Amino acid sequence: MNGTTQGDDTFSVPGASGCGPNGDGSLNAAVNAVVGLPSPSGANHLVLDDASSALAFPTSGLSGSGTIVTGQEFSAAWHSAFD
């Protein structure tokens, strides 16, 4: 689906963590106060304009059969390509 608007207003947003020099958390409270965190589910709104989404099923294709691979096979192939 391309060119659609997708949205969500059912997610929560946790409080800040690791903000400050060297990630020490000393600025967490200040960040939380400025932006209103943590924020519960239903209090947030996200809209993605001109969004696209897809569902893909990886296939082996190596033998020409086009058989859908298992999650374990897909993971092994992914890691061999990017590790």
Strand and helix map with partners:
Elements: E1 2-8, H1 28-35, E2 46-52, H2 71-82
Antiparallel strand pairs: 1-2
Explain this structure:
- The chain has 83 residues and is an alpha+beta fold.
- Helix content is 24%, strand content 17%.
- The protein contains 2 helices and 2 strands.
- The protein has a two-stranded antiparallel ribbon with strand order 1-2.
Mean pLDDT: 82
- What is the string of helix and strand elements? EHEH
Radius of gyration, whole Å: 21 Å
Can you count the helices? 2
Number of strands: 2
Name the strands of the widest sheet in spatial order.
Answer: 1-2
| CA-based shape | flat
Proportion of residues in helical segments: 10-25%
Query: Largest sheet, described in full?
Result: 2 strands, antiparallel
Low-confidence stretches: none
Quaternary state of the chains: single chain
Structural class: alpha+beta
Distance between the termini: 31 Å
Strand content: 15-25%
List keywords for this structure.
83 residues, alpha+beta, two-stranded antiparallel sheet, 2 helices, flat
Task: Provide a brief overview of the structure.
The chain has 83 residues and is α+β, with helices and mostly antiparallel strands.
